[in-house]
Amino acid sequence: MKRVISRENPFGLTPKGLAFEIVKDRGVRGAHLDYGAHNGDFLEALSKAGFIASAVGVDVNVDVVRKFQPLMPANVKLECITKHAPLPFPPNSFDSMSIIGVVEHVHDQTKLLSQLAAALKPGGYIVIAVPGQHVFSALDMGNWKFRFPALHRVVYTMLHSREDYHRRYVECRNGLFGDIEVEKMWHEHFSIESMGRLLATAGLKIADVDGQGLFQRILINVAYFAGGRNGPLKSIIDFDAQRFGRCELVFVAQHS
Fold first, then answer.
1. Is 80 exceeded by the pLDDT of residue 42?
2. Dist CA 156 CA 9 (whole Å)
3. Which of 94, 107, 212, 251 has fewest C-beta within 10 Å?
4. Which pLDDT tens digit goes with each residue over 210-220?
């Protein structure tokens, strides 16, 4: 990892934490869009730190947006969007954007990135965080539900409920199988080269790239089954995140 996570960063050694540092370093304090904002925590942190003048966060999860919108700062708005519908923003609307842990879940990635590029002002940038393609990618627990569907159903039902499993993985509300589009059905990993090719199809190019970790897929799996990331295991995970830059990649993209 090239960047240092500052003390004011509420997300620590995570892709969201790295994205926070990038926005801080870029110094553009205009209008910001966060695609896949979920509960709005990233925009809330940017607003409180004074890194943006205003922000919009969009997400397909209606229940989450409705729950957290009242908790947002005055200059942050969360909005619901519908899968496959065009983004409701005119061209050149935003100075900066973020899309953290989303592209790998999307089927038509070129369409999404092209819409984001159209809404981005000239000279603006998009921060894109995705899983990195490397030797331990096969250990990604996000794909276990596709590799071992019967086992996933049993474990998920035990940890949550049969009704919750049916809602998320049978009804597939909002067109999502869990958190991945039903047309995609795979948690994709990217190399710098593959992301560069994808961005080019949307009229974008890589301006910068940073990354975290190498052994995190192993360490996070161990932590999960050990009941958490506290104690010595957290220190090892944090060291790995700082020392290497392959497991999670964070790109800065601009108009080509």
1. yes
2. 32
3. 107
4. 999 999 989 98
